[in-house]
Structure formats: structure tokens, C-alpha cells
């Protein structure tokens, strides 16, 4: 078997030929120019022929050197290809998410998924709740709604409850004694969470409020409620960050089953991919 030249000598030869000098090759390889010169002399001695013409302006490959350079580059290319074959292919997973779900529920848990699935490369895109609008085509959509999505594979992530919420200072300033007192208070509204389930749970046959600021993002709704703009309806899970820090307090002990919740949705074709099924199963498990 013929003796194979050392890899460091081949790398020095290729770099010097490409860059036109030993000093430039030394900079790229993080060694001294004398080390590059020594490696190339070692390679020339093994091959029994000069590979470079030395000139005051630098070096250039001899005719033999140019032919050998082609072989070296081809060999390096094959080594790179072989290395790529040994690495597991990263699988792309595109997920669309409503903004409040992403910020309040998923982002803190996502590192757990990524650590246990290093082969998956995720792309997260925000969508508009109830309108099912996203900036990118997604493999998995997390939707806020009732779960009636025709021609889709649907997985409910969890059930929740709704309750009226307000800032402690807002409550104290109004001396509210019961939910009926909200009839004379500022009620914040959102198409994502109606008031009527809370009214009905308290035995009030009231319609949806017709006045009050409207917010189509629950994070914005909770934030302005915490700032004292009015009372809002929130789910236990989504409002936890505000309630746990005392910025919002539940009112009157009233709760009701949430009319909407989050669902993981995929087309039948997307659901055939193992990465899609695994991610949906992980979502369902982490929120169980």
C-alpha cells in the first residue's frame, strides 16, 4: 500500500496554492509561515517533485503541482461528502402559533423539546387567532377556537376555565361587592373571550357588553387590565403570569368552562410525517 501524505501537509499545499503564498496559508491554518514551508517540503520530498515555483511575489504551482492540486481538492471533496453522510439529517418543522400562546405557554417549554430532538430544526411563526392567518405555510398550526376544523387532524391541547379579572387598584377604587356590580363598570372586550360564560356562571342572563375597548390579542388585553383600564375575562392558564405576580386578581370567585381553547392542527398529508406526529404528541403531553 502506498504511503498516504499527512493531512496537514495536504492542507498546507492546497491553501498555499489557492491563496498564492505561504504567509497567507499560514494565516488561514493558524500556524507560522515556516511551518507551512516545512510541510510543503515534506510533501515534495514524499512525491519526489517540486510542487511550487518560488518567486519574489509569492508561489505558484508547477505543472505537476496543478495536476496534483486537482486530485487533492477532489479527495477533500469526497471526505466532506463522507462526513455529511455520517451526520443525521436535520428535519425542518414549521409551526404557527397565536402570540399569547407562544409567549405565555410555549416558549418556556420549547427548550425541553429541542434538547430531546436535536435532529429537528424548528421555525416558529405567529398567527392571528380565530382568523387562522399566518405569514408562512406551517406543518403544525396551534389554533384558538372550538376545534371544528374540517379536513384536518385535530388534537385538543387542554381544557381551561375563564374568570373575570382586574387590577387590585381598580377593584379597590370601585368597592365592588359582586359580579352584578360590573354592570356599572368598565368592561374590556375581546372576540377571543366572551363575557357571557362568566355572567351565566353567576346566574346573570346578560348579553355581551356593547361598549368598552376591544383587543384581539389576549396579552394586550391582560396588560391594559393590569394597568387599570377595566375588568377583563381571562383563562386561568393564559392569565397566570399576571395573576401570580398580583397585577391582576380574579373577581368574585366566578369561573366557567372556557368556550375556546388551543388545538394542534395538521393536514392529513402533514400528519403522515413522524416529526409532525411527535411534536403534536409532545404538545399534548406537556400541557396535559
List keywords for this structure.
288 residues, alpha+beta, Arc Repressor Mutant, subunit A, D-Maltodextrin-Binding Protein, domain 2, 3 domains, 6-stranded mixed sheet, 4-stranded antiparallel sheet
At CATH level 2, the architecture of the largest domain is: 3-Layer(aba) Sandwich
Instruction: Identify the CATH homologous superfamily of the largest domain.
Output: Periplasmic binding protein-like II
Largest sheet: 6 strands, mixed
* SSE class: alpha+beta
Helix count, DSSP H or I runs of 4 or more residues: 12
Distance between the termini: 62 Å
Helix and strand pattern: HHHEEHEHHEEEEEHHHEHEEEHH
- Quick one: CATH class of the largest domain? Alpha Beta
The CATH topology of the largest domain: D-Maltodextrin-Binding Protein, domain 2
Rounded to the nearest angstrom, the radius of gyration is: 33 Å
Number of strands: 12
The helix content is 40-55%
Shape: elongated
Q: Give the assembly state of these chains.
A: single chain
Mean pLDDT score: 91
Whole-number total of structural domains: 3
Beta-strand level of the residues, as a percent range?
Answer: 15-25%
Low-confidence stretches: none
Widest sheet, order of strands: 5-4-3-6-12-7
Keywords: DNA-binding, Transcription, Transcription regulation
Protein name: Transcription regulator protein, lysR family
Domain HTH lysR-type: 5-62
GO molecular function: DNA-binding transcription factor activity; sequence-specific DNA binding
Amino acid at each position: 500500500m502506498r504511503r498516504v501524505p499527512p493531512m496537514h501537509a495536504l492542507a498546507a499545499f492546497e491553501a498555499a496554492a489557492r491563496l498564492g503564498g505561504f504567509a497567507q496559508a499560514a494565516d488561514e491554518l493558524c500556524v507560522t509561515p515556516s511551518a507551512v514551508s516545512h510541510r510543503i517540503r515534506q510533501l515534495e520530498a514524499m512525491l519526489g517533485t517540486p510542487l511550487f515555483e518560488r518567486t519574489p511575489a509569492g508561489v505558484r504551482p508547477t505543472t505537476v503541482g496543478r495536476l496534483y492540486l486537482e486530485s487533492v481538492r477532489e479527495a477533500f471533496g469526497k471526505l466532506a461528502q463522507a462526513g455529511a453522510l455520517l451526520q443525521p439529517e436535520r428535519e425542518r418543522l414549521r409551526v404557527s402559533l397565536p402570540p399569547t400562546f407562544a409567549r405565555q405557554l410555549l416558549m418556556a417549554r420549547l427548550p425541553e423539546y429541542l434538547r430531546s430532538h436535536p435532529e429537528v430544526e424548528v421555525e416558529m411563526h405567529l398567527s392571528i387567532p380565530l382568523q387562522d392567518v399566518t405569514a408562512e405555510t406551517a406543518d403544525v398550526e396551534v389554533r384558538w377556537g372550538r376545534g371544528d376544523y374540517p379536513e384536518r387532524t385535530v388534537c385538543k391541547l387542554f381544557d381551561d376555565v375563564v374568570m373575570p379579572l382586574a387590577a387590585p387598584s381598580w377593584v379597590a377604587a370601585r368597592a365592588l361587592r359582586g359580579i352584578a356590580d360590573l354592570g356599572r363598570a368598565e368592561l374590556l372586550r375581546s372576540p377571543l373571550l366572551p363575557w357571557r360564560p362568566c355572567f351565566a356562571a353567576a346566574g346573570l342572563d346578560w348579553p355581551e357588553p356593547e361598549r368598552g375597548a376591544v383587543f384581539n390579542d389576549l396579552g394586550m388585553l391582560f396588560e391594559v387590565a393590569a394597568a387599570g383600564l377595566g375588568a377583563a375575562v381571562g383563562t386561568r392558564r393564559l392569565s397566570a403570569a399576571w395573576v401570580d405576580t398580583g397585577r391582576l386578581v380574579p373577581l368574585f370567585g366566578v369561573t366557567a368552562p372556557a368556550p375556546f381553547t388551543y388545538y394542534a392542527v395538521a393536514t392529513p398529508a402533514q400528519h403522515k410525517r413522524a416529526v409532525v406526529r411527535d411534536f403534536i404528541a409532545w404538545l399534548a403531553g406537556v400541557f396535559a
